């Protein structure tokens, strides 16, 4: 990773995503300041950040990490980049950005990692919305290379270019999203797939496990090597067009979440966090699956790293 000239960043929110984003900057040699209101979480937060830095091959330098409880305690005269990772509540995010605007020096880039709220809504009414943009990372942020760079209605295009260059310097792959639309780019594609997957379960056509296997060991396996558009170019657009002609009319187009999904959520069966979702989870099984998952992602990351180096 390449250390940039402006090497002081702040992360607002010390949850899972905030910790992993902080690790990205630390691994890149940045001084990184994290705002986490709950001081009881600081020790665990520091440990998670250190482990994430090591996972991506960085050297954890504790003197470069500063954790505090409030944004006003940050070293605002040094900070060049801020990434907000507060809980997904619009009023909270708007309040955070209003405070960031008061503290941040002119030219400091203010970004939100929100996965659901357009940056235009978060920045609405603020005087310096031109320096505010979306930087949407994907869990686990330190392992997944892609980062969406989202231009809001008032975002200066030069700020997006600056953010993209910053992400490249941290060994990330910026994905430019030219319009601030719900779901941005990746989540729109992902949710289209999930709508069809859940519809097949609703119709009794397949089990959750069979759908996971079809994606992971079938077409999803190819996505490490080529994205969906490139893969179709390689296979032949005529073949895809003919298949689309046959299938599109039969694909799910419901505007509401799957009944099966809704039922599980209403019953409090939320997956690993509650011990049951489409699968059953013990704490031991969850830990083992998370370890396997991160090991596989790390292996895929090595493939991408070799490609970038021409290997």
Describe the structure.
The chain folds into three domains: 8-177, 3-Layer(aba) Sandwich (Rossmann fold); 186-256, no CATH class; 268-306. Helices cover 46% and strands 12% of the residues. α1 links the parallel β1 (8-12) and β2 (31-35). It is an alpha/beta fold and 311 residues long. α1 packs across α2 (42-55). The two termini are 17 Å apart. It contains eleven helices and eight strands.
Q: What is the overall pLDDT average?
A: 95
- Tally of extended strands? 8
Estimated helix fraction: 40-55%
What CATH calls the topology of the largest domain is Rossmann fold
Characterize the biggest β-sheet.
Answer: 8 strands, mixed
Beginning-to-end CA distance, first to last residue: 17 Å
Determine the number of helices (DSSP H or I, runs of at least 4 residues). Answer: 11
Rg for CA atoms:
21 Å
State the gist of this model.
The protein is α/β, with parallel strands linked by helices and 311 residues long. It has helices at 16-27, 42-55, 90-103, 119-122, 157-169, 186-202, 208-222, 228-235, 237-247, 259-266, 283-308, and strands spanning 8-12, 31-35, 65-68, 81-84, 109-112, 132-137, 146-150, 173-177. Helix 1 crosses helix 2.
């Amino acid at each position: 990773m390449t250390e940039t000239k402006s090497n002081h960043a702040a992360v607002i929110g010390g949850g899972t995503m905030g910790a992993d984003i902080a690790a990205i900057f630390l691994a890149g040699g940045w001084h990184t300041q994290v705002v986490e209101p709950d001081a009881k979480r600081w020790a665990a937060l520091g440990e998670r950040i250190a482990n994430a830095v090591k996972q991506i091959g960085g050297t954890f330098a504790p003197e470069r990490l500063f954790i505090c409880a409030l944004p006003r305690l940050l070293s605002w005269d040094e900070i060049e980049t801020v990434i907000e990772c507060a809980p997904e509540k619009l009023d909270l995010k708007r309040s955070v950005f209003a405070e960031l605007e008061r503290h941040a020096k002119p030219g400091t880039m203010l970004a939100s990692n929100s996965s659901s709220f357009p940056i235009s809504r978060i920045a609405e009414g603020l005087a310096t919305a031109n320096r505010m943009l979306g930087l949407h990372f994907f869990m686990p942020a330190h392992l997944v290379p892609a980062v969406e760079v989202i231009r809001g209605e008032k975002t200066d295009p030069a700020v997006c270019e600056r953010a993209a260059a910053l992400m490249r310097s941290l060994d990330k792959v910026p994905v430019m999203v030219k319009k601030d639309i719900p779901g941005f780019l990746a989540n729109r594609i992902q949710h289209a797939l999930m709508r069809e997957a859940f519809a097949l379960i609703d119709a009794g056509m397949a089990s959750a496990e069979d759908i996971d296997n079809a994606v992971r060991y079938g077409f999803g396996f190819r996505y490490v090597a080529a994205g969906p558009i490139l893969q179709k170019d390689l296979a032949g657009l005529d073949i895809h067009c003919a298949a689309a002609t046959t299938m599109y009319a039969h694909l799910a187009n419901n505007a509401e979440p799957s009944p099966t999904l809704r039922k599980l959520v209403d019953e409090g069966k939320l997956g690993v966090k509650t011990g049951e979702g489409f699968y059953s989870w013990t704490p031991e099984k969850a830990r083992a699956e998370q370890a396997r998952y991160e090991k596989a992602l790390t292996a895929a990351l090595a493939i991408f790293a070799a490609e970038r180096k021409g290997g």
